[in-house]
């Protein structure tokens, strides 16, 4: 008999990876209220790139009883909802602006932002109760080799202070880096962050209760983005927006794309940084290795995304035509959930899958999805993580948890800590 997975159950919410492990070891899929959750690496990878499946788009809202209105119209226009030729055309146009070169050119700015924020963490920690100031070279935390790849102002977090990692680093870094890359002016970033976080609620399981909030955010974003795109047409800058207005996209496609980029690229990185920090707290030996050797950054950025993904469940898929997997038929019209966070811990593919190990090259993880919808921002997310993590490790190699973290419940896309109290000893 097939096992069941209750995505809203206490067990799953309390220990998602523990529950997934038990189910995955028993079988390659488990039934959920939305359809079968696919749990093992080979099957998840195959299904993500299968032409017989599509993303649910507005069906995801319909399944939650929302069938019309501005939220439905917005989701209908998202790149993630498009299929076939429509998707290919938009993705090709975006690809001409969102190039590997542009992302690599951004690396330095991402590093500078990480340096600034790490320096700010030092001040926060310094304000904590019982702070003892360590002065002079080699006198305490942050005296590790190089103090981060840039050796910039982010060197060293003072001893004895407590701070919240999400508020102090993950959130401002994720939002600041994305806004700089896209070209959102500094004075409106906070509002844009709030609006896009609200729009991101469309990917959750409780959309109905958030409709008024999402509608208000969409209205604000529409006016704001239209104005900004006009400005870029008149006076181009060195940013993604200016490159996007040159592509053959309609006004509606452009606007929708900018909303998608901002919504998809903000919370995902914030949660991923929080998850990374939580994973390293549980594997302090790996954190110290990264602190001592920033050349491990690339591998570290992959391993945390495999081990503790912010997209724990991945994106559901709808079956377009009957498909048979391991002798089981999934009928046209039904849903499947390729659970990438489970596939990434499949012991048939990864040695000691529950262990975070930044020293070995692992099989490619599936957190960024697969097939035509493979994360458009994966290269940017990688650069952000590669620049942030070694700086943080070098500045606070002995950091520890300062009380329990508060977690967002794992929904179908985003998963990560809402707050993560840390302390430097
Ligand atoms: C650690 C950070 C990130 C994670 C874990 C993540 C994860 C994902 C996942 C799971 C998908 C769906 C793939 C599929 O189902 O096959 C996706 C799609 C997408 N992501 Fe990301 N993402 C991240 C960062 C970003 C960033 C920084 C941006 C933009 C700047 C971005 C933009 C997008 C877009 C536009 C899509 C839709 C692509 C399409 O439909 O063709 N993501 N991402």
From TrEMBL:
Comp. bias intervals (Gly residues): 137-158
Top-level lineage group: Bacteria
Gene3D superfamilies linked: Cytochrome P450
Region of interest (Disordered), ranges: 124-158
Molecular function in Gene Ontology: heme binding; iron ion binding; monooxygenase activity; oxidoreductase activity, acting on paired donors, with incorporation or reduction of molecular oxygen
InterPro entries: Cyt_P450, Cyt_P450_B, Cyt_P450_sf
Cleaved signal peptide residues: none
Family statement: Belongs to the cytochrome P450 family.
Entries under PANTHER family matching the protein: CYTOCHROME P450 YJIB-RELATED, P450, PUTATIVE (EUROFUNG)-RELATED
The protein's name in its UniProt record: Cytochrome P450
